[in-house]
Amino acid sequence: MSTTHKSAKDRLIVALDVPELARAQEIVEKLAPFVGMFKVGLELYSVAGPAALKIIKERGGRVFADLKFHDIPNTVAGAVRALVRHGVDMLNVHAAGGKEMLLMAREAAEEEAARQGRKPPLLIAVTVLTSLDTASLKEDVGIERSLEEQVVHWALLAQRCGLNGVVASARELEAIRKACGPEFVVVTPGIRPTGATPDDQRRVLTPAEAVRRGATYLVVGRPVLSSPDPVAAVTSILGEIGSI
Ligand SMILES: O=c1ccn([C@@H]2O[C@H](COP(=O)(O)O)[C@@H](O)[C@H]2O)c(=O)[nH]1
């Protein structure tokens, strides 16, 4: 279990997976009092670019730029520097990019933050996407290790390269905590309240179980965004997390 004490609100990240900036802005307005961070992913960033980060910052919110960089080290370093200039609080790269890429990403984040006179954002490595299961990791991606071993392998690589944590499913929390310790940040998507549809997620867990197993942050998208009452959906999740 992580020793980092956070309120239920601080742990909750809502994914702004919507196709229009105006819709994102509506959600931010409604949910800002209840949510620790908003996540801007590939869809919204491709639609609106840095304006998507700005609407969150202007509302006093914290921003997770979930752009999952995976390219040669120099290209990733340049993209990381640009996100740091936009003042994001968390950003991520794929662990599969390898050691040199992770090291250059970290250096870029630290140097650019120092240049801006602010503390570096949390730099997180994506391990095995939560939409994959044991069979697809082996047959489609071609990785022979077990899914949990692969997640731990990438978590240790990220830690050795000085990153703050990883994105993984809450199902791997025990193994990650054992390998990387209680302070390592673990961001867990694939969160589904009891009875919710898993959609395209393959490794899911409830909010309460994720926190019980030591998640630092929980990422929730569709269970909130497709609810007729997103505020009620969020407060119900907060109630579940808060009761742990
Ligand atoms: O392994 C990963 C990495 C990132 N994500 C992102 O989290 C959200 C989850 O959304 P839901 O609607 O709650 O499924 C989404 O933005 C993904 O891009 C992930 O799911 N798994």
TrEMBL record:
Quaternary structure annotation from Swiss-Prot or TrEMBL: Homodimer.
| Keyword Acyltransferase among UniProt keywords | no
Report the top EC class in one word: lyase
Family of the protein in this entry: Belongs to the OMP decarboxylase family. Type 1 subfamily.
Annotated Gene Ontology cellular component terms: cytosol
Quote the function comment for this protein. Answer: Catalyzes the decarboxylation of orotidine 5'-monophosphate (OMP) to uridine 5'-monophosphate (UMP).
Cite the Orotidine 5'-phosphate decarboxylase domain residue spans from the record.
11-237
Q: Name one GO molecular function term.
A: orotidine-5'-phosphate decarboxylase activity
Q: Which SMART domains match?
A: OMPdecase
Q: Where does substrate bind?
A: 17, 39, 66-75, 130, 192, 201, 221-222
Q: What NCBIfam families would the database entry show? A: PRK00230.1 (NF001273), pyrF (TIGR01740)
- The residues annotated as the active site are D66, K68, D71
**Which Pfam families does the annotation name?**
OMPdecase (PF00215)
InterPro entries referenced in this protein's UniProt entry, alphabetically: Aldolase_TIM, OMPdecase, OMPdecase_AS, OMPdecase_bac, OMPdeCOase_dom, RibuloseP-bd_barrel
Q: Which reaction does it catalyse?
A: orotidine 5'-phosphate + H(+) = UMP + CO2
Q: Which GO terms describe its biological process?
A: 'de novo' pyrimidine nucleobase biosynthetic process; 'de novo' UMP biosynthetic process
The protein's name: Orotidine 5'-phosphate decarboxylase
Which CDD domains does the UniProt entry name for this protein? OMP_decarboxylase_like
Pathway noted in the entry: Pyrimidine metabolism; UMP biosynthesis via de novo pathway; UMP from orotate: step 2/2
Q: Is the keyword Lyase in the record?
A: yes
EC number from the UniProt entry: 4.1.1.23
Its lineage opens with: Bacteria, Bacillati, Bacillota, Clostridia, Neomoorellales
